[in-house]
Write a structure and sequence with these properties.
Helix content is 56%, strand content 14%. By secondary structure, it is of the alpha/beta class. It folds into 2 domains: 11-113, Response regulator (Rossmann fold), CATH 3.40.50.2300; 142-198, Arc Repressor Mutant, subunit A, CATH 1.10.10. Helix 3 (68-80) links the parallel strand 3 (58-62) and strand 4 (85-89). Helix 5 packs across helix 6 and helix 6 (167-181) crosses helix 7 (185-198).
Length: 204
Amino acid sequence: MAKNSQTAPLLTVLIIDDDMERAEAFRAALKDTPYSVKHLAHTSVSLLKEVEKTEPDIILIDIESPNRDTIESLSTISAFNPKPVVMFSEHEEPDLMRDSIKAGVSAYVSGDTTPERAKFILDVAVARFNEFQGLKAELSDAKQKLESRKWVDQAKALLIEKQGMTEQQAYAAIRKMAMDNGQKMEDVAKNLISMMQLMGGGQS
């Protein structure tokens, strides 16, 4: 596969491996692909420090059996700086696989690994990661809309009860205040609720 940096920017890869010879084989296998191995590191190094120092797009970890520190580091990365992570492990351990995926590993491959499969596995990991991030964004957006509706509904209820408005009038009033002040309806609703509670008009 020929490089085309203009249409497909290279994704940099950090390889963490106990076996530098095998790591170099992965580097060679990824030559002339969309993936560029930016750095090789031994598993004895701090994963968080290596990620902070090299800022890779993807992390590839090939170790015999990930320890608890590695899993916790991956959880931290997933929470604060998520990126596709591929983990190769020689042993088939269901508990380890579950913990790794929970920690943010996009592709977990057990058993013997061959460098020739690296590009395909990275393709799968990137696709899974992007899909998961999209689902997370959709879920976050849905939660935000639900939270916003809750505040607006509460403000409407107060206006209906205390101002004698209909539901439609209450909604229109909140929307007009939001437009006039360049605010979100949720923020207007929160302000209304606070103001009416201060005036003794809030619900118990």
